[in-house]
Structures are given as structure tokens and as C-alpha cells.
Amino acid sequence: MGMTGKDTTEILRRRILRGLTLIIAVAAALVTLANALKSYWLLATLDLFLCLFCTVIAWHHHKGHYQQWHSYAVMFLYILANSVVSSYGGLLSGLPFWLLTFPILLYLLFGKRVGVVCSAALLLIEVNILYFNTQIENTDAVISILINFVLAYIVIWVISHSYEMSRKSNEKKLVNLALRDALTQTYNRLALQEHFSQYLDKDVISVALLDIDDFKQINDKFGHDVGDCVLLQLSKLVRKTIGDDQVYRIGGEEFVVLFKGCTMESLVHIIETLRHTIQHTPFGNDTLTINITISIGVSEVQDGTPLSQHLKQADERLYCAKRKGKNQAVFKR
């Protein structure tokens, strides 16, 4: 079974959270010690709780016990601890610079939507906290420092947003490359396996296996370039007739079509219409026009039966159609 974009994103976020919990646990332990030595007991208690919580979460991840709420809980405590510490330390302590990590972590852990909303909300909240809890009496100096903080925050926010958008776009392209046939841009065998398992729980499915009759002779007589043109044109015609999300090229001149929720009567009508359309459609290129036919074998999906079994049954009925003279569909043996 292949891996979807959602799967790869989830794996990335789990790795980030695992690394983040370890870093926070170590940092919080050191800060707890420093605050205890200075008798800042409230801060020491908060940092100790954060350290212990992140240690527990890291241990759960090590054991493979991940839950979605772990990310939200760790991020909430991280934001809370940094906000409290920054308000106590003030602008000149350097502690507010940790607030600049918020957009990065929000985008990495939760994606664009949460990243945009929370980064904006936290910027407003943190600026107010820093402004009203500063120990600097010079208002101009406070405003100057806050302006630089806000600008730095926005720069990091924009970079985080751009990275997430680029990552999602590249991920989508990679998933598309993995699930699409390079020549025809129909789905491939890997996509068929994934989609079949998804559809099986929701709809009645029929599997139709299509094969171009005498395709080897087309390649031998006219060349592989013409053969590729025929495959490309046929795939476009089938996708236009059936639907893009139901057509799969599984090798050579063989295509699979998944029919969801069709009665046998409507299935026969659709397949015979498709076969008739292909038979009377010219294929080829600008200098050559040829006619082709297809043979089709159909298998009705039964509950719990694996895809391989249905492909085998459809393949048997396909070759039954070939033996009967080609250019026909076989629904039952």
C-alpha cells in the first residue's frame, strides 16, 4: 500500500513533536534549576511541570503511543511558559526572543490554517503583554524595541507561511507523480490499490479490465510513437466518458475502470456505449489515422474479496472476450 500526502505530513509532524518535546524538556530542566537558584518559585514550578510533561510525551512517542492532542498540549504549555517568563523577565532580558519561534512551530505542527490564526492572535497578545509589563521607563525605547520585535516576528511568520505553502505544493506534486501514469496521466496500479480499499467500505464496486485489441501489431506496424498516441487518446476518451477518478492504467495497453454504485443494467449500458464509441473514433496523429477496438472483462466486487482476486476474474473474462472474437465485453463466464 502506498503512502498519501496526509500520511507523510503526519509522519513529519510526529518527528517534529518528538524532537521538540526532547528539546523543551532539557531546556525547561535547566531553566527550572536557574529559577530555583534565584528563588523564582512560580517560574520554577511552571518550568518543572513543562519539563515533566514533555518528558512523558517523549516517552509515549518512543513507545509508539501517539495521539493528536499531544501536539496541542505541548504547544499550549510551550506558549504559556514562554509568555509568563517573558512577562516576568521584560524586554531587556532577551527572553521575548523565544516568542519568535511560535510561527515556525505552529506551521510545522498544525499547518497553514492554525498557523495563520494563532500566529496573528499571539502577536497581538504578546505585544500587549510585553508593553504593559515592561520595566523600562523610556516609552520611546519600549516602542522601538517592540517595533523591532514585531518586524522580526512578521518576517519569521512570512517565511514559515511560505515554507508551508511550498511544502504542501511539493508534497501534492510528489503524491501525484507516485499515483499517476507518466504517459497518460491516468491513475496507476498503486492508486488503484488505495482507491479500491477506500471505495470498498462505501459503495458496490465493479471492476472492468480494458485491453486494446492487437495493440502489438499497431506498435510493430506504425511504431511506438503512434502506439503512445493511441494510448494517450484512448485514456482521454475513457476519462471523458467514465470520469477521471475511475480510470487506471496498470500496464502496457491495459486499463482498469472502477464503477461505483452501478446496477448491472446501467453497467452494461455504460461499457457497451464506451466500446461502441472507441470502435468508431479515429486514433493516431496528424499524418496517420487508425481505428481500434477494445475487449473488456468485468468482475463484480463481493464483500471482503481482495482486489487481486477481482483483477484475476476480470482478466479471465477479458481473455474470454478475446477468444470469442475481440471487440466485446464479457460480464459472466
UniProtKB/TrEMBL annotation:
Every GGDEF domain range: 203-333
Cofactor: Mg(2+)
The protein's enzyme class: transferase
GO cellular component: plasma membrane
GO biological process: cell adhesion involved in single-species biofilm formation; negative regulation of bacterial-type flagellum-dependent cell motility
SMART domains found in the cross-reference section: GGDEF
Residue ranges of the TM segments: 16-34, 40-59, 71-89, 117-136, 142-163
Keywords of this entry: Membrane, Transmembrane, Transmembrane helix
The UniProt record lists the keyword Chloroplast: no
KW Transmembrane helix (keyword) present: yes
EC code: 2.7.7.65
Reaction(s) catalysed (UniProt annotation): 2 GTP = 3',3'-c-di-GMP + 2 diphosphate
Annotated PANTHER family: DIGUANYLATE CYCLASE DGCM-RELATED, REGULATORY COMPONENTS OF SENSORY TRANSDUCTION SYSTEM
NCBIfam families recorded: GGDEF
Protein known as: diguanylate cyclase
